[in-house]
Amino acid sequence: MAGRRLAARWILPVGRPPIRDGALLIGSSGRIDMVGADAVVPTPEDAQALTFDECVIIPGLVNTHTHLELSGFEGMVVEPDFATWIRRLRQLKATRSSIDFLQAARRGLEACYAAGITTVADTGDSGAAIQALAESGGSGVAYQEVFGPDPEQADASLADLRGRVEQRAALSGDRLRIGVSPHAPYTVSGRLYREVAGWARAERLPLAVHVAESVAETEFLRHATGPFAEAWRARGIPLPRSAGHSPVSWLGAHGVLSPTTLCIHAVQLNDDDITLLADTGASVAHCPLSNRVHGHGEAPLQQLLQAGIRVGVGTDSVVSVGRLDMMAEARAARELSPLLDAHAVLELCTLGGARALELDSQLGSLESGKWGDCAVVRLQSAVVLDPAEAVLASRSSDVVRTYLGGKEVYRAP
Q1: Distance from C-alpha of 413 to C-alpha of 410, rounded to nearest angstrom
Q2: 210 and which of 19, 80, 101, 184 could share a cystine (Cβ 3.0–4.6 Å)?
Q3: Per-residue model confidence as pLDDT tens digits over 253-276
């Protein structure tokens, strides 16, 4: 691949001040060679040189949580009760074939690129996302889901998980990792949590888990009551011996939390939970719009950041939020933490997400040696006092180009 030199009115490297009339040089390796003022960055003879007037170039966005295989289900599950919503989604998924899931994941990945998203942390059980990512030379982590609420299922569930991971391991590479995701406390037994966590550590696999998302989940673990408890009783599944445990402390008790653990949602948290997350080094995927849609409440974003916890922003699935729009998520996150300025919020969507996934040495900011992942965003005004504010106010339709390792993966019509 030939190198690329991209120039624009503004460059937002993240981690260092904005550069007015800047340029970015991506070498043939797909990594960044230089970032700086347009007048300083050279133009090699073999590089494709492009100038984007009235635009800002930002690092490719890092979506720390989504479900690409669910693309196409927008607006098809509308239910205020979360437990019922999950059950109806499960029924809807049962109508899809493996080919359907793959086509959906491909569409979802295309939507990510069109929104300036270049790295995805996806959770799913069909295997479609890792295949779609591998086909496109994509970047991210594909977490293979595993379920099993009955402790008697643990051995079979773990064996099935290991088989699926081994089957798909060949699809991973320099830019794409496979991980595991014991789904949530209301779908996974304590025994299965412990066994999956132990196996993941032994195999050095990243782990993601939906946790502390809803009040119903907390009620289930603390008091063995509510819709999830009723569902387990109806199926003859023994309830977990978790009285007094919060969802986060329940995971901690089963060895799930570690620096390679991504905690998805993490809304229903108390001070002890935040301390435990910080002490174990676990990170958080913050999905403010999904939390809002389902009425889960507001995650304590400011407290998480003040505790030194690595936090990235995620869109969740289109079933919940309708579209994969990271800037809409960023604006919602800012509402929860007004102490954050536009630059700090943009960092949550880029370098913060990369840190949460332990990928920050490779991506998340525009600097020499990192992958040449970036998005070109059209400015809506000729007068820009703060380019970060301009980006934060943008829509997905304002993305002009998206590059992954210097390769163009999206061009606006």
Answers
A1: 9
A2: 184
A3: 999 999 999 999 999 999 999 999
